Amino acid sequence: MEAIVLYPVPAMGHLISMVELGKLILTHHPSFTINILITTPPFNTGCTAQYITDVSSTTPSITFHHLPTISLLLSSYATIEALTFELLQLNNPNVHRALQSISQTCTVRTLIIDGFCTPAVAVATELNIPTYYFYTSGASSLASFLYFPIIHENTTESFKDLNRLLYIPGIPPIPSSDMPQPLLDRSTKGHSPIAC
């Protein structure tokens, strides 16, 4: 049996998008199984439990794997996004174990990750599993996120301190202070791995 593993950010909108991707894959390739890794964050992400139950009963080819809970203190992080980035980084050992477990009964053909689950690339590389990003935001947002590592490499300042226009290929110039809040301060605990 062949499997595709999907790994979304722990938020309802991201989970729904990944499930819909899984359903689309099954429409075109019904012989695959879809395995979705679920991270349990220390904050409310919406009514995911009922949604997962509903999907499990209507689409048996989609299986959900709940990763072990990682305890993090909410007050230690400036934003929920910073906490989420840290959680996803700390979750790598759990992702590794889940992929190994799935591999015992299926051949894992690929890992498809949410645009924010970048830390999992190292795990998939170690296990020789091809990895693809699933990015549901607009093209301008994607252009920015793809260019962030170049900006990050060429300056030691945070976006909040640059105080200039950023020239990112594919989009009009944008003030550095208009970058998404979780990316403004590179010294913040849990700073986005996308910009690194």
From TrEMBL:
GO terms for molecular function: UDP-glucosyltransferase activity. Keywords: Glycosyltransferase, Transferase. InterPro entries: UDP-glycosyltransf_plant (IPR050481). Residues 177-196 are annotated as: Disordered. It comes from the Eukaryota. PANTHER family: GLYCOSYLTRANSFERASE (PTHR48048:SF30). Belongs to the UDP-glycosyltransferase family. This is Uncharacterized protein. It comes from Liquidambar formosana.
